[in-house]
Design a protein that fits this description.
about 85% helix, mainly alpha, Ferritin, single chain
């Protein structure tokens, strides 16, 4: 894989991480349960660290790292804001929207791992995917509990 192509793959993941960071923060602002708000802020910080690690790899390749999320992520965050206003269970809605965002992040990480990556890059992406999957499972479990509590 060329250095230019590797930077492109890494920048796609950086944008995904920035979407995750901003998405968790957008949901945290709308959560009613303080423990969920704290959890979401912590998860946003994790995505911020993931993006930072990927940005360093892009710089190591001589590329210019992305610093922002995607237009689709921005649109999803606007929807999150509207959905929080339109539902009688905003915490459940925020968990559902975070799970949807994490589904996308997992997909992007897996797509990156389908590429022929240098071993150290692959190792970092696998580590970040594991963290993203852990976040997904946590949010899904919380969503499942809230779904049963509101039923």
């Amino acid at each position: 894989m060329t250095s230019e192509r590797l930077c492109q793959v890494l920048n796609e993941l950086i944008a995904t991480c920035k979407d995750g960071e901003q998405g968790f923060l957008a949901c945290a602002e709308r959560l009613q349960a303080p423990e969920l708000r704290t959890l979401f802020i912590t998860r946003a910080e994790e995505f911020e660290r993931f993006a930072g690690d990927l940005q360093l790899l892009v710089e190591d390749q001589g590329g210019q790292p992305d610093t922002a999320g995607t237009p689709a992520g921005a649109l999803h965050r606007r929807w999150v804001g509207m959905r929080a206003l339109l539902t009688e269970h905003p915490d459940l809605a925020m968990l559902e929207e975070c799970e949807r965002g994490l589904d996308f992040a997992v997909k992007r990480y897996r797509q990156a791992l389908d590429r022929d990556l240098p071993a150290p890059v692959r190792q970092l992406i696998e580590h970040e995917l594991a963290g993203t999957l852990s976040n997904h499972d946590l949010v899904k479990g919380l969503r499942d509990r809230r779904t049963h509590a509101t039923a």
